[in-house]
Amino acid sequence: MGEDEKPVYSRILLKLSGEALMGAELYGIDTAVLRQLAEEISEVHRLGIQIALVIGGGNIFRGVSAASGGMDRSTADYMGMLATIMNSLAMQDALEKFGIATRVLSAIDMKEVAEPYIRRRAIRHLEKGRIVIFAAGTGLPFFTTDTTAALRASEIGAEVLMKATKVDGVYESDPLKNPGAMRYERISFSDVLNLNLRVMDATAISLAREQKMRIIVFNIKQKGNIRQAVLGKSIGTMVEETCYAR
Fold first, then answer.
1. CB of 164 within 8 A of CB of 218?
2. What SS3 state is found at 105?
3. Average pLDDT value for the chain
4. Which residues of 35-68 are buried (b: 16+ CB within 10 A; e: fewer)?
5. Does residue 246 fall inside a structural domain?
6. 189 part of a folded domain
7. Three-state DSSP state, 92
8. Which of 40, 78, 94, 100 sits between 20 and 30 A of 114, alpha carbons compared?
9. What is the pLDDT of residue 243?
10. Confidence at residue 63, expressed as pLDDT on a 0 to 100 scale
11. Alpha-carbon distance values, 145 to 64, 67, 123, 136 (Å)
12. How many domains in the chain?
């Protein structure tokens, strides 16, 4: 491994949206996209990095959308948690096809398909070189998978939270609606909250700020970006406590 190939992090948490698994499909899981993501994650794992994952469930069920349609919010959120378990099991299967030992830890007791979430057990799996996937959110309604990612990253002592999205960073406004929107290379947690930038929900950002947990936001559709991020290359947007100019 050359000097330019040396990772700058030893333990990371990667947050993937459920939509990232859809590919060109309208819902569900595109197996080709799943395989590609698993291949990229396995390549990063072989650099010697300890990897934890949190995967959303929006490709199968969105609790907030269902609640806005009249369903009880708690019920809708629990259904969303079940969707994250389905995605986590799919990713586990895909990763293990690349020879990577993987464990799914669920915040909801599902002993037949996943281990219960226990912080010390999760850390032990990481130390043994296994990829850990945190499923079922926090196990409580009203909390998003963004908040779960910030919480679990803090609990396991991850050095960075990497949020993979469909855009290449944090913009001053929605770049899909405003093509002239400016992208931030670095921005502080306070500015994200004050400017109401939709990087992650406010609870997740506040928790990350309190724990001084850096967040890197980058485009998952660009092949190789996960590797570039762990190697410290300048991609996407870095969110941290110190305020930087755009």
1. yes
2. strand
3. 92
4. eebbebbbebbebebbbbbbbbbbbbbbbeebbe
5. no
6. yes
7. helix
8. 40
9. 55
10. 63
11. 12, 16, 20, 8
12. 1
